[in-house]
Write a structure and sequence with these properties.
The protein is mainly α. It has one domain. Helix content is 80%, strand content 0%. Helix 1 packs parallel to helix 5, helix 2 crosses helix 7 and helix 5 packs antiparallel against helix 6. The chain is elongated, with a radius of gyration of 20 Å.
Length: 190
Amino acid sequence: MKKGSLRHAFKFILIVTLISIPLSGLFDTGTVFMDGIPWSIGVFIVIFIVLVGAFFDMIGVAAAAATETPFHAMGSKRIFGAKMAVKIVRNAEKVASICSDVIGDIASVLSGATALAVGQQIGNSLGLHGWGAEGISIAITVMATALTIGAKAFGKTVAVYFPTSIILFASRVVERGLTVLPGRRRGTTR
């Protein structure tokens, strides 16, 4: 690795680290609002957060596992999303860091905090105090942790076996998102 590219990599790492501080704070404050939500809805929120984290973790692993060759072939056939897919694969370390480390890890922490809040709500609704309430909170948090680990393991396995399909899907979502921005049309890049 060249000295300049190593410096560029450390600069990116610093930027991602600094960006993760306000993002984590913003997302973690969402657990404060869990008190006003019924625990039955809170359970679905925990599951949603777990799935979002696992999905982005899967994209990060797929970016690292994918190769450019199939996307160049798709690009020559003008398949939508192929050019963006090449960009994603060329920047695999950045995509993997943002998707897996920033979004995936924040979602993991957030799911644990949200599961703890849901566990406390369940304990309160059952009128439990002391060890009974603590036991419910711990059980819900353990289940959320196990679900997170299982979902991420499943996503990583799928990403290793099907990186091309996953990156093409992600690149199409990004491309469609870029086309709805003001002043952007499909096929234009800046």
